[in-house]
Structures are given as C-alpha cells and as structure tokens.
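haha ok so turns out i had the wrong file open the whole time. this is the CORRECT one, sorry everyone. sequence first:
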Amino acid sequence: MTLTILYFAQLAEERGAAQECLTGDYADLAALYNALHAQHHFSLAQNQLRVARNQMFAEWTDAPQDGDKTHLTADGHAWLARVRTQAETFRQFLATHNINPTELLAMHFNISTRNQLKGTISAVQEGAVNSEIAINIGTHPLTAIITRASAERLGLKAGVEAYALIKASDVMIGSADIAAQISARNAIPGTISRIETGAVNDEVTLDIGDGNSLVAIITRTSAERLGFRVGQNACAIIKASNVMIGC
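then structure:
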C-alpha cells in the first residue's frame, strides 16, 4: 500500500519535511510509526503523539488503508510538560551561574528609547489612579509616575530591580545650579562627556557616575546659548511622567 505521512510541530522539525510518501504493509498505525521511528530516529515515543487518518483522529490499533493520509503530531500535554521542564532547567541554570533575569531581559529590549538605566525600586506610593515609583540609579534617586494598574501588573515593590526608560527628547539639560529653580521632580547632576552637533539639534551626553549616562536631544540654538562644552558640570531635568519603568 502507498501512504502519505503528514508531519506537524516537532516531528516536522525533526524530519526536516512536512510530508513524505511511504510504500509498505503495516498491521496497524502503531507498526507504521515504529517503522518511521526507527528510520528517522524521532525523539518522541508513540504515547507522546496523536495520530489521525484522513483528517480524523484514529487509534494506534487501527489498520491503515491504501491511499490514506496519516497525520502525526505531538500531543499537546506532552509538549507542555517538556516546555515546563525546559523552563525549570533554565531557571536552575540562571541560579547556578548567578545570572540576573532582569539583566538577561535587558539584552533583548528591542526599543528605540535611548536611555535605559538599571536600578532598584526603593519605594512605591499608590494613588487612586497613578503610582509614584522611586528607583535608585546608582547614587541618584529617580521618580516615575505610572498608572497603578501598570505598577501592579509589573509587580513593582521595594527591592525589585528594574529599568528606567527615558526618551532623549524628554531630557532637558541645564546649568549645575538649576535644580533648585524648577518644579521638575528629577534633577540629576553630572558632567558633559560628549556633544554631537547637528543641523537643528544637538545630542548631549551627560555622565552621571556609576557607569551611567543620560543622552539628551536639545536644539542647537539652546546648546549655543547655554555655552555647553565637554567637561562642564550640568544637570539633567526629567519630568516624572516622562519616565517609563520596565522589568
């Protein structure tokens, strides 16, 4: 008899093909899979699979018929169990090698936000709608205002490591003594380490210590008016509502 074997999910990956034609005589579907297992060295045992004939679920004891289309796919429960086992193995690996999952996640942030600063949540003050999040970035305290629902969804609480995400266009740069003269919640002192001049805007990098820096996009006119130069002390000003939290 000639049979068409259709592979799905893991079996298709291991076979390297979605289907194949097979010629031979098989007492039942179990015997058919035993032959395929021996030929292709599948990792899944028969009890980890579901089998179907001509798009209808079948029993392993059913006899195949000439011209049948036999479907083989991994059983969902068995697949889920393997995923859970792999997840636990990965968790143990991270713990054994003292790898912080937050740092690992940061490696995969695929976002355009220029400033991604790692820190530790020091306090969470809940309001009716919004929550005030205090996060320490090195020696600098930073305050973010996010929705209470977001804070709860992220599981934010004191001691949790997180990232402050700030768009460069939301960072203002002022003189070192401006902090006492403005209402913006966050005023972080530092030293200008780099200025990249553009036709309209300048990109100013402020070294805030502990290996951290903040990048600001300001107009070229403002940069010239304030006389910014590399090595000059300055202050980054950021509204609390412009600080996003990720973890």
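The mean pLDDT is 86.
again sry for the mixup
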